[in-house]
Hints:
By secondary structure, this protein is mainly β. It has helices at 6-11, 57-62, 90-93, 174-177, and strands spanning 20-21, 42-46, 52-56, 66-73, 78-89, 103-108, 113-117, 127-132, 135-136, 146-148, 161-167. The ligand Nc1nc2c(c(=O)[nH]1)N[C@H]1C(S)=C(S)[C@@H](COP(=O)(O)O)O[C@H]1N2 is lined by residues 25-30, 74, 108, 110, 112, 141-142, 154-155, 157-160.
Amino acid sequence: MAVFGGRRREENGAVPPGQHLTDGFPVLSAGPTPTIETEEWEFVIRTEAGVVHRWSWDDLHALPSEGITVDIHCVTSWSKLGTGWRGVSLDTLFADVETGLEFVMVHSYGGYTTNLAMEDLLEGKAWIAYEYDGDDLDPEHGGPARLLVPHLYFWKSAKWVRGIAMQDDDYPGFWEENGYHLHGDPWREERYA
Ligand SMILES: Nc1nc2c(c(=O)[nH]1)N[C@H]1C(S)=C(S)[C@@H](COP(=O)(O)O)O[C@H]1N2
Ligand SMILES: [Mo]
């Protein structure tokens, strides 16, 4: 067991440069935690043609879900290894979406936004997650549901996710407008622009 512990993994390079491990689960929110009833919750993808794909809470749960075990990395320098989630792959949600654009803006209940490239959302890289550690996702961690994009710094994993709008360029979201990097790869230390 010891060889799979944090220290050995750190020595193996599992922790990106400039990061340290935490066993806790810090809460980082730029504003108050919004209350969203699952009866009212919806997730939408809007294309450049104005087509809106819409999922209710029940619609989301009718889709195939995946258990996801991933390391997460906050730009404020904490990393947490082996976090366990359940959610629906963005590949599933984008299956019937017709778009020629390569960038998106992710929108949250409460107004938070973050920009992403399609290549960081598809092919098993991102999920709409609604369970953490076997339980419903806590509101403070983004419940009812959040985006999970673990290969990028955790500010890209929008809590209280509400929708995705296709955009024709990599226009910045909330933190990106305030100096964070447009992309945010922790292995390249893409922290600030
Ligand atoms: N809607 C929303 N999503 C957000 C944030 C936020 O302020 N609002 N903060 C981001 C940042 S900076 C981080 S590090 C993670 C923190 O998630 P946690 O509070 O579950 O640890 O959420 C990200 N997603
Ligand atoms: Mo963060």
